[in-house]
Amino acid sequence: MHIYIDFHIHTALSPCGDSDMTPNNIVNMAKLKGLDAIAITDHNSCENAKSCIEAGKTAGILVIPGMEIQTREDVHALCLFRNIESAMTFQDLVYNSLPQLKNRPNVFGEQILFDCRDNVIGINDRLLLTSSNISFNEACNLVKKLNGAFIPAHIDRNSFSVIYNLGFIPDNLPIKTVEYSKYEDLKRLKDSKIIKPDYRFIKSSDAHYLWDILERESFIDVDEFTVSNIIDVL
Amino acid sequence: MKVSDLVEKLNLKVVSGFGGIEKEVKGVYTCDLLSWVMSHAVKGNAWITVQVHPNIIAVASLLELSCIIIPEDIEIEDVTLEKSNQEAIPVIKSSMNSYELCLKLSQIGV
What's the CA gap between B74 and B60, in Å, rounded? Predict the structure, then answer.
């Protein structure tokens, strides 16, 4: 079965995320756009994932708990999990490896926590927009240990991508899927043989504003429409 | 100048890849974006980088760089050290930062 997806969406917990990126705004916009499943992937945090999953149940859209980690090498990767418990376990590891610095909202933006009804329930005051001290390889192996999916993010971009920062995707890691932003840029990488063609390539929005969320353009095929089956495929 | 001369003159520490310490050093390159290094560094360069991911060995090997210098006493991943031994690419550690290393390397004529 084809399911239409956008597995890279930020809430207002990401300092660069718009304040309109609340759980209900996101799931309802995704629903309006005709998506079947989305993932919530804030920078180095999963704290809004649970509220988004609950809001998704009300709206009728599948929400996968996730994080966009920034590794020691300044590489961004999506870490998607089967359940909120695994996401929180991973979040603890990442929080312990972040520098003990406070966010400066006037420079980076607010980091807002919501409940499933979009009420503001707190502010995260850690500096999230920075590198954890977990390497790209360690992050991949940790996510796999938690039975999650590790997806190098926007590999076609010239910032925070594994290919730009580390030259190429290490081939000794259990990576099946990679994310791209623009087909033309992905094609350039494929044509120059910088990336092997045997990955699964998924397009995501990296939405920081509601209008960025994808329409029905990126899909995967699954046997069953469940979070577990989607993670298996990825 | 050989890698071993450079190490001796600046009192640096080779941590792996001893098989390559007699390689000839031709110039210095410093950059931390590996894709950029791949398209700009040239054969024989001593490469200064804060990256310690195993991919640095692949890049150095591909371009036939003479050695990799890791500044500021950054801890290096074990897999990186193993690969450097396999590829005979000397990995050298220093407490200096990249700028200080460049100055010193210039002073000894690299």
Answer: 18
Question: Where is A56: in which H helix or E strand?
Answer: helix A49-59
Residues A68-101: b if buried by 16+ CB within 10 A, e if exposed: bbbbbbbbbbbbbbbbeebbebbbebbeebbeee
The answer to whether B67 and B90 are in contact (CB under 8 A) is yes
The mean pLDDT of A98-121, rounded to a whole number, is 95
Phi, psi of B70 (to 5 degrees): -100, 115
Q: What CATH number is associated with residue A133?
A: 3.20.20.140
Does the model's ipTM exceed the 0.90 cut?
no
CB atoms A135 and B58 under 8 Å: no
Whether residue B59 and residue A167 make contact (CB cut-off 8 A), yes or no, is yes
Q: How far does chain A reach from its first CA to its final CA, in angstroms?
A: 15
Which phi and psi angles does B16 have, rounded to 5°? -165, 175
Residue A127: which domain range? 2-233
- Interface contact flag, A164 B55, Cβ < 8 Å: no
What domains lie within chain B, and their CATH numbers?
3-108 (3.40.1390.20)
Q: How many domains in chain A?
A: 1
- Convert the pLDDT of each residue in B38-82 to its tens digit: 999 999 999 999 999 999 999 999 999 999 999 999 999 999 999
Q: For residue A1, with 0-12 CB atoms within 10 Å meaning exposed, 13-18 middle and 19 or more buried, which class applies?
A: exposed
Residue A171 clears pLDDT 90, i.e. is over it: no
Task: Give the predicted TM-score (pTM) of the model.
Answer: 0.93
Cβ contact B29:B60 at 8 Å: no
Residue from the list B51, B58, B79 with its beta carbon closest to the beta carbon of A73: B51
Contact residues on chain B for A135, CB-CB shorter than 8 A: 52-53, 77
Task: Report residue A53 as tokens.
Answer: 């999953």
